[in-house]
Specification:
The structure is a single chain. By secondary structure, the chain is of the alpha+beta class. It is built from 14 helices and 49 strands. The protein has 5 domains: 164 residues, Bulb-type lectin domain (Agglutinin, subunit A, Orthogonal Prism); 118 residues, Agglutinin, subunit A; 125 residues, no CATH class; 101 residues, Phosphorylase Kinase, domain 1 (2-Layer Sandwich); 218 residues, Transferase(Phosphotransferase) domain 1 (Transferase(Phosphotransferase), domain 1). The longest helix has 25 residues. The N terminus and C terminus are likely disordered. It binds 2-acetamido-2-deoxy-beta-D-glucopyranose (NAG) (12 copies). The site of one 2-acetamido-2-deoxy-beta-D-glucopyranose has 3 residues, from loops. GO terms for molecular function: ATP binding; carbohydrate binding; protein kinase activity; protein serine kinase activity; protein serine/threonine kinase activity. Belongs to the protein kinase superfamily. Ser/Thr protein kinase family. This is Receptor-like serine/threonine-protein kinase.
Length: 815
Amino acid sequence: MVTGKNTGSATASLIILLVSSSSCLINAQDITYPSVAHHPNSWINVPVFNFGFWDSAGVTPILASGTYVCGFHCESSKGKCLFAVSIFQINSSISPKIVWSANRNNPVKLRATLQLSGKGYLILQDLDGTPVWNTNTTGKFVSGLKLSEEGNLVLFDRNNETVWQSFDHPTDTLVPGQALVPGQKLTANVSTSNSSAGLYSVALTNDSLIAFLEPDPQQVYFGPLRVKHMNQGNIKVQYLNGSFDRFLLPSTSAAQFIQLGSDGHLRAYQLRESKWEPVSDLLINYTGACGFPLVCGEYGVCSAGSCTCPKAEGNESLLYFSKVSEGCHENIPVSCKPSDLHSHSLLELKDYDYFNFIPHIKNTDREHCTKACLQNCSCKAAIYRQQLNSSNGYCCLLSKIFSFKRKEENITDYNSLSYIKVQNPPYTFFAREKGPKSIAAILGSTLGVLFTLFLVVSIFFLRGNKIDLKAVENASRGNKKKDSKAVGKRSTRFSFEDLKSMTENFSAKLGEGGFGSVFYGTLPDGSKIAVKRLDGPGHFRKSLLAEVETLGSVHHINLVTLIGFCAEKSHWLLVYEYMHNGSLDKWIFPKDRELRLSWNLRRKIILDIARGLAYLHEGWTQKILHLDIKPQNILLDENFNAQLADFGLSKVIARDQDKAFTTMRGTPGYMAPEWSSAVITEKVDVYSFGIVVLEILCGRRNVDRSQSEEEMHLLSLFRQKAEEGKLLDLVDELAEDMQPNEAEVVKMMRIAAWCLQVDYTRRPSMTDVLRVLEGFMDVKPNLIYDFLNPQAPAAPCIRAGTTSVATPSILSGPR
Ligand SMILES: *[C@@H]1O[C@H](CO)[C@@H](O)[C@H](O)[C@H]1NC(C)=O
Ligand SMILES: *[C@@H]1O[C@H](CO)[C@@H](O)[C@H](O)[C@H]1NC(C)=O
Ligand SMILES: *[C@@H]1O[C@H](CO)[C@@H](O)[C@H](O)[C@H]1NC(C)=O
Ligand SMILES: *[C@@H]1O[C@H](CO)[C@@H](O)[C@H](O)[C@H]1NC(C)=O
Ligand SMILES: *[C@@H]1O[C@H](CO)[C@@H](O)[C@H](O)[C@H]1NC(C)=O
Ligand SMILES: *[C@@H]1O[C@H](CO)[C@@H](O)[C@H](O)[C@H]1NC(C)=O
Ligand SMILES: *[C@@H]1O[C@H](CO)[C@@H](O)[C@H](O)[C@H]1NC(C)=O
Ligand SMILES: *[C@@H]1O[C@H](CO)[C@@H](O)[C@H](O)[C@H]1NC(C)=O
Ligand SMILES: *[C@@H]1O[C@H](CO)[C@@H](O)[C@H](O)[C@H]1NC(C)=O
Ligand SMILES: *[C@@H]1O[C@H](CO)[C@@H](O)[C@H](O)[C@H]1NC(C)=O
Ligand SMILES: *[C@@H]1O[C@H](CO)[C@@H](O)[C@H](O)[C@H]1NC(C)=O
Ligand SMILES: *[C@@H]1O[C@H](CO)[C@@H](O)[C@H](O)[C@H]1NC(C)=O
């Protein structure tokens, strides 16, 4: 009892201390720090631990003067400290704001030391003694260090003459009274959370102010703006009460500073009601809101302050680029491999401009400008400007791309066109010859197929195996067609001997499926590969060629990369890029409780699958239906980028053809209800996508025989929970961060429901799914949650095919 009481009172006094410190009010008399220190002297970075103002702000003061303090400033959470000068407010609850720091690129730890050496310099050493920063004033006669009322940290000599001062080495901030002189610059932080020197700088060169981006070559986005004050050759831009040279600022008695932000904006901040608020955006009157290099990220396009991704004029398709959190991402990276050089083209953005224009080619025309860019692989984009009353133009070639901006309408003296280089898909692979077929042949084969089909459906279905009707169809048809098609120009043909040595005689097996095994290997250049060896009989040859043909002709970051193949006598092998994290099923149906994906990764994987499918469906002149979307066919690399794999069942149809007649194929549980009619559109992939999304969110299989009768079918549960408004009950309990992201998770479930509509015409296209995922569109209202159970497809009713025969799957099974 007694001990209990004691603990209680101790806690109470601690609480009192904490409460008094959390109010963060300090009295003038709390500031007992000097403004001058004499040499030799040294200070150690140890927190004050008095629950006072400095402690709660993570500051260990050394000198203080006016509203400025100089000392160690630590980020309490990370134990990373800067030796810095900051501006603070007496009797206020706001933390000191750093206006200058010595070691922004090299934070030090607790117990680092600052030493004012007798040899004339100031040096900062980390905990282990490593010198991190010094004033380079060795040999000067320094007698002390002082912090001025303006916030200038000064090393002075016996005559009070300045030997070194922080105002000559600004970081990203200027304070009133401070000036920039030629050669000095402000450099922004890398980001709001990383104080290292970043990309943007504002500098005074000769007599002009410029703002630029650092990478070589320097790219100016503001200025040069000639400065106003130039008396007696003493050029400087001085920050005074109410102005910064040509820029007018609110004149005030409240504290103020100017800071270059990590977004490239130069802003003035002022203390208002105990908050630092931006009161002026200095450069924007000259640049416009879209005139900052990374306003929309790399490859982003800025129009009236809002961001999109580049797309061809009048073309709604989101093919070449996808939106990522910062900027846009090339779906098909431009390749400089000699074999890919001929397949570049330029995406034209009419009336788009760039923040910076260096006329690399003068007195030229549009054709020469675009040609110059296409001929040099380092050129990633070209900007062409033409004066209105002239036939001559200027051409600027870019080797690194930041944001594009829509040309301001009131700039009427020139036209501007931007061209972004993109990688073409090799169309030629789609040009299949379609041999005419006699009705008798079709009928004959169809009847044969129907019969075999029936048997196989019964057998495979009962076993719960994948129905591979195509293989049967082809077997019954015989293998008459010759494999004359152009086989993947992009894919290398390997010899069996080569593959044998690359896989060390097929020693490391990654997985095994019904039709073959997958082995680990390495190419001579060291890149890792997965080699699929087909062990089935000879008629599978054709399907190998089909997969090579389909995969070899598409190239997309979310489709597995087929590196090559081998077709020799009895050896049939496919060579893929090795995917470090294997297939998705291992990650969402975990037996092992260690494996669990965060919500962010789940969302990213869903987005990747959607991009891959959108590309297949709406990519090019022909549509590719994958027809076997399921977690086993989605592979993950070491960064959890998802790629679609296994095109053994895929089907290529003409773009203008919206329906195809085909035989039933796929995997039960993932097959859309309309398969029973055998009239198939790309919406069957959308359906399977919906199932996969649901499985990713719920962390369980669509049909899970290990569950009780009423919990076995995920779709019936989904319907029930949707009606009860308790969708979150379904969420994978292994993912701790899904409940907190409730709104997003529920939105994703509604996308799944949309994709699972029984009537395929009610399902979205994959492009619409992408638009919803990227926030450009909402899920259609009035979804019908009465999902037909796809477990029981009606008796197959196959109609005579009008398209060429597709291929058997020999590539299924685990990888
Ligand atoms: C700060 O507050 C104390 C008491 O709360 C007061 O005596 C002092 O004058 C204040 N100082 C300033 C600068 O307002
Ligand atoms: C001191 O000199 C070093 C090397 O020349 C340089 O990297 C550093 O920035 C200088 N320090 C200051 C404060 O000028
Ligand atoms: C230097 O300045 C201090 C205070 O500002 C003053 O006390 C001292 O006499 C000055 N020394 C010289 C040599 O001017
Ligand atoms: C800060 O940015 C620099 C430069 O980009 C980088 O080297 C450093 O690792 C970053 N620091 C942190 C903590 O992210
Ligand atoms: C830059 O980093 C410093 C130190 O962390 C911080 O005090 C300052 O506010 C940052 N500047 C910007 C613009 O975020
Ligand atoms: C600045 O002056 C130097 C030499 O005086 C000159 O070479 C350079 O071109 C000038 N820069 C600008 C931007 O005027
Ligand atoms: C700045 O100027 C305004 C008006 O001219 C004045 O009221 C204010 O006190 C001045 N501020 C400082 C810090 O001198
Ligand atoms: C920008 O322009 C507006 C309106 O013309 C003006 O009020 C403002 O002072 C200007 N900003 C700067 C920093 O000069
Ligand atoms: C735009 O879309 C059409 C089909 O709608 C397609 O034929 C064309 O190639 C696309 N153009 C570009 C540049 O993507
Ligand atoms: C290609 O472009 C790069 C960067 O724009 C340039 O450095 C290089 O000289 C160019 N090469 C040729 C052959 O023009
Ligand atoms: C063009 O118009 C924008 C606003 O519509 C304005 O901010 C800008 O100053 C104008 N530029 C010119 C050159 O007139
Ligand atoms: C272009 O020519 C027309 C008529 O010749 C003239 O009115 C206009 O001012 C010219 N524009 C420019 C930008 O020179």
